Amino acid sequence: MADTIACVACLDPARSVHTPTFIRAVEIARDLVAGPAFELRFFDDRAEAGVAAKVSGEIAALLPRAVVGHFASAAAAAAIPAYEAAGIPLLLPAATMARLTEHGNVIRVCDSDDDYADWLTGELAGRRFIVERLHSDGSAHGESVVAALGRRQHGLGGSGTRATVFSGSYRASVDFASGFSGGTLVLTDDADAASLAGDLAAAGVNLSRTAVLVAALRPRPSGLRAAAIAEEYRRRHQSMPGCYFWETIAAIEIACDPSFPTGPRFETVLGALSPGRRECRPGSFSLEGSGDEHGAACPRFCQRRCGAPARCEPRSAIAAGFLDARALRLGRPVRSRHSIRRQRAAVRRPFAGLGVQPPNQRTAGCSSSMAAGSSITTRRSLRRSSRNLPPPAACGSRPSTIQRRRRPRRGNRFSAP
Q1: CA 361 from centroid of its chain's CA atoms
Q2: Lowest CB count within 10 Å: 174, 180, 247, 286, which one?
């Protein structure tokens, strides 16, 4: 009999912008992660504490292997007592309120509000922002983020650009931005969606005059499974995953792990996660402009464009995973054009000025049958060998006495016969 894993969140897209992402994550995980040994069942908490408390009682009566979900922090806080009484582990892929992991049956896969506030404080101070006001929509998550930032208010002063931080749901963030004027507005993770720039413009926000930044949670998945999941998502939905997709996949992977819940370490698409003190802490933070292309939908898989190039990489680890998946499908090594260019430059560099020809570049990094002593003669090397000339590195420049073959020069066709 298959073990049941309860997947709980708001299932109404009209109420939550993250609903499609959650549903798609569970559907793909059912096919590519769980398999026939596990049954993933949906439950709707409508992102409300009262509904979540009622649904948690129904789930506890089923005694599932684990519960994945409750995206809203208030819903998770209302549901925890029922799971704790029944001894059911709860995996949180999106609920960030810090005090949720005080309960012994809770493991948080995403980052907490305290870790988020520590990062955001340092990021804003590093960019010379002065946070003048902190606002929330009154939700449990919004109040938790504002309280965490308020405790670190000493790191948000100084001199620089004025900024206002608003923490709340997606709809509340758009409504607040529509009435905002002056300085820079920083929205928190619940406002992270590919549709944000369009919704802000529709609400009358002039993004050329009002700077709107989003302090988002953007995980960096890696490995063959992550590449296969991303490719399947693109095939089904012609886009890339949105906010909290990868955390949901990782939570389901942990629930399906044979050593769960006592194992000290779990291999997931976010890497090896060790829930020390019931916090996995993937550290997937990113501060971006609302008009930037959503990182999850970027076709080049850019990690982020956050203005800190020293800490950013042009390509994320998932790009390497895509190459690995393609190599597995084709049965031969596959490399990107960027890596081939870098290796060719690295191979040429030691031979510069030594008067010797570098090894053939076309065999570098290829299959063992090609790279094991075989050489592919290029057209340029064939021309040189036919003329009995040394390579350019040895002779410095080509002699001017070389007689090139030229086509016979034709007369002017407009001249008289």
Answers
A1: 33
A2: 180
Of residues 180, 151, 155, the one with CA closest to residue 166: 180
User: Using alpha carbons only, what angle is made at residue 17 by residues 13 and 23, rounded to the nearest 5 degrees?
Assistant: 60
The answer to whether the CB of 251 falls within 8 A of the CB of 8 is: no
Buried b (16+ CB within 10 A) or exposed e, 191-222: bbbbebbebbeeeebeeeebebbbbbbbbbbb
User: In this structure, are strands 184-187 and 271-273 parallel, antiparallel, or unpaired?
Assistant: unpaired
pTM of the model: 0.68
> In angstroms, how far apart are the furthest CA atoms of the chain?
107
Is-contact 272 265, C-beta < 8 A? yes
Q: Average of pLDDT values for 4-13? A: 95
What pLDDT, on the 0 to 100 scale, is given for residue 153?
76
65-87 confidence digits (pLDDT tens)? 999 999 999 999 999 999 999 99
C-alpha 108/C-alpha 34 separation (Å) is 20
pLDDT bin (cut points 50, 70, 90) of residue 186 is: very high
Alpha helices by DSSP H, 331-391: 337-348, 368-371, 379-387
**Helical (H) or strand (E) element with 271:** strand 271-273
Write the pLDDT tens digit of every residue in 132-148. Answer: 889 999 988 899 999 99
DSSP letter assigned to residue 324 = H
- DSSP, res 156: G
Q: Is 276 left (phi over 0), alpha (psi -120 to 50) or beta?
A: beta
In the structure, what pLDDT confidence band is assigned to residue 167 with cuts at 50, 70 and 90? very high
pLDDT above 50 for 320: yes
204-262 pLDDT, tens digit per residue, is 988 888 889 999 888 889 889 999 999 999 999 988 888 899 999 999 999 999 999 88
Nearest alpha-carbon partner for 249 in 276, 227, 268, 274:
268
How many Cα neighbours within 13 Å face the side chain of 319?
16
Cα–Cα separations (whole angstroms), residue 151 to 17, 38, 164, 283, 292: 29, 43, 16, 20, 30
**Count of other CB atoms within 10 angstroms of residue 142:** 25
- DSSP code, position 276: B
